[in-house]
Amino acid sequence: xxxxxxxxxxxxxxxxxxxxxxxxxxxxxxxxxxxxxxxxxxxxxxxxxxxxxxxxxxxxxxxxxxxxxxxxxxxxxxxxxxxxxxxxxxxxxxxxxxxxxxxxxxxxxxxxxxxxxxxxxxxxxxxxxxxxxxxxxxxxxxxxxxxxxxxxxxxxxxxxxxxxxxxxxxxxxxxxxxxxxxxxxxxxxxxxxxxxxxxxxxxxxxxxxxxxxxxxxxxxxxxxxxxxxxxxxxxxxxxxxxxxxxxxxxxxxxxxxxxxxxxxxxxxxxxxxxxxxxxxxxxxxxxxxxxxxxxxxxxxxxxxxxxxxxxxxxxxxxxxxxxxxxxxxxxxxxxxxxxxxxxxxxxxxxxxxxxxxxxxxxxxxxxxxxxxxxxxxxxxxxxxxxxxxxxxxxxxxxxxxxxxxxxxxxxxxxxxxxxxxxxxxxxxxxxxxxxxxxxxxx
Length: 442
Fold this sequence. Notes:
Layout: H1 3-13, E1 32-35, E2 42-45, H2 49-66, H3 74-88, E3 99-103, E4 110-112, E5 117-121, H4 122-125, H5 131-146, H6 149-153, H7 156-162, H8 189-192, H9 197-213, H10 219-234, H11 249-261, H12 274-280, H13 282-286, H14 288-302, H15 306-319, H16 324-336, H17 340-353, H18 359-370, H19 374-387, H20 392-404, H21 408-421, H22 426-437
Helix pairs in contact: 3-5, 5-9, 5-10, 10-11, 14-15, 14-16, 15-16, 16-17, 16-18, 17-18, 18-19, 18-20, 19-20, 20-21, 21-22
């Protein structure tokens, strides 16, 4: 039996534990006092403005990909950006490099990184009623950026916590189940879960101020908060991160209403922009049944009700066969049930639907290894590496693939690169053992 045949055999028998490899930005955590952009007083910060921007550049692409990338609708993303820039031009920090995208994720949320890279999930966008509510949503996130809440909290320590580059090192499709729960989509929660009640209140207040400055009625914030109150009652499992960390939506709704009826009463007759919102989101709202089925499927997956989840994803795909998210989710659902061959078909379909998005590429790579097709695995893992470089887990799996193809020297290079990142865990042990047996290490 050859080395790569031996490994293929081990691959089917063993599971590797998931590992998170944290990328640290900067040699040390810097902290000090700065002037608040909002209130003008002194605040304690852990990041400079340049470091805030650096967090976005290094961390945001990975998280947005975890949420299955921006929707493939240039008009919709353009509309979101237009509303966002209408607001951010009137903030306390208009110089920040704000950016906006609608994400393929189905859970109900919006989030931003410290430098202003923002994502809005399709799961919340289809439930909004007008542009004023969208402005409130974006305004809240802009409030966090402008008050420098991330910089005030943990600084570089926070960055180290969330800058996950090597998540999901998997040795076989059977070990793939860890990717299937809702938690795998919520990497941003590490950024946002530490927001205090005061942070949330300040972000709401700033968001309402910004939307009013931009010409929207303050009632949009009331509508948004009421939506969240309703969602919390109806489907709390789909409310994540920003709005569920501190269950205070009723309080926030009542505060927003009080401000709309007092300080911002003069804005009450302003247009909420419902017609423009409906026109701009029409294509997305047409697939709301698909999004709802995906939400139900993910909730079932989180509860390990895989048969029910599969049924929901099939409903989603019947409605919208070429929905990228539904194909990825179906592949994961089938994989966790050890239906690897079927799972691979859906994952490959997903890569054809959205070749520029990384998650399906990794999914094909892992499943192909389980199906003893190292050449196919390497092709897609390498594509993932081109789209999102720096994932230590993918480096290791590329080594596995190359070894399976009999390309020992190239495999050794990948294993060595992996060991430069981490010396802990089964993947590191395996890499070291291979390099030793091949004479690259003593």
